[in-house]
Protein: Radical SAM protein
Amino acid sequence: MLESVRHLDQVAREWNVNPEDVLLIALNASGARSPLTKPRMRFRLRLDSRPDTPLFLILSLGREDSPFELDEYELRLNGEKVGEVDGIEDDDAVLGYWRNGTKMLTLNSNARSQCTGCVFCPNTLEDASDPKIKALDLPGYLGALAVNSGMEDLSAVETVTVCTGCFLYEHLALDHLAEVRAAMGHNGCTGTLHFLSSVLSSNEGMDAAAGLGPFHLTLTAECFTERRQILKESKAKLTPAEMTAALGRAKQRGITTDFTYIVGLDPIEDAIGHLKDFVPVTTAFPRFQTYQAHNAFMDVYRTPGSDTIEWHLAMRRHLEELFAPTGLRPQWWQNYRSPWCFTFAGQELTGVKI
Structure:
C-alpha cells in the first residue's frame, strides 16, 4: 500500500492529494502491526504534519503484513514516526458515545447478538458485552449520560443516532425508535433521530418515521456485487433499485437521507455505475468507509486492485466527481474510515475531527 514516508509524499504529489489523507486511507485499508493484544482498538491520533488537529480512529491490529506499526505512544510507517497516539481503548460494545463534542450521541441500544453479521463487521472479534436497554430504562440512561457528561439535560444535543445490531423486521425497529424519541423528549432533546439500517423501506414505515419528528435515515447499502456472499440476509435481499426507491420515499416525506458504502468491495466500474443512481435521492453526504480487513479471511473479499493506494485514490476521485456538484461534503467526526479528512475535490474541509 505504502512503502515509506518518501513513497507517501511521492503518491500525494502525483495525485494532487494532501499527504495526510493519503496516509489515513492507507492506514484504514492496511490496519497495523502492534504489540497490543486486542484485534481492534479505538484511539486518538495526532499526525506529526498536523499536530494541532486530533483525529479519532478505530483500527484493526495484528496485521503483520501492514507497513504501519502502532503502540501506546506512536504510529510509524515502516519504522518512521508519523504521529502520536493516546486514549487507546478496546473497541468493545458500549451503550452510548459522543461525536462532534457532545452534539451527537450514538446509541447501541439493541442487543448485537441478534445480528447475524456481514463479513466485514468487526463485532464477531469482540469479546465484549451485549448491550440492550429496555424501554423503561432509556430515559434514565440518557439522563445519567447527560449528568456524567457535565450537562443538565440533552437540550443541546443535535442528533441521537441509533446504530445497533439487527431488528429483523421494520415494525420492531419503529417500536424501538419511538421509545428512543420518547426518552429524548423526557431529557429535553428535540433534535434529529438518526437511524442506520436496511429494514426501514416501506411507505408505511416512512410515514411512521416521519411522524417521529426530525428524522435521518442512513440506508446500509454497503456494496453492489457479491451481496449474498458478503451481507446478512436483511441487507442482501435489497436490490440497488429497491434501495434508491426507499431513499426516494424518505426524501419525499422530508426525511434526511444518505447511505453507507464500503469502499474496496466492488470494482470501481460497478460501484460508480450504481452510485450515480443514489445521488438524486441523497440529501446528506454518504458514509463512504474504507474497507478494513481484520484478518486474512476478510482479505479475500477485497476487489482486485484495492490492495493498492492508487486504486483507492482513483475511487476517491470518481466519488468526488459524483458528489462535488451536490454541495454535500464529508465530515471526519461522522465517519472515521472516510477517504476524506482534510480535503475534498481540492478544497479544504473545515470543522471538528473528533
Observations:
- The radius of gyration is 20 Å.
- The chain is about 30% helix and 20% strand.
- The first helix runs from residue 5 to 15.
- Residues 93-307 form a domain with the TIM Barrel fold (CATH 3.20.20.70).
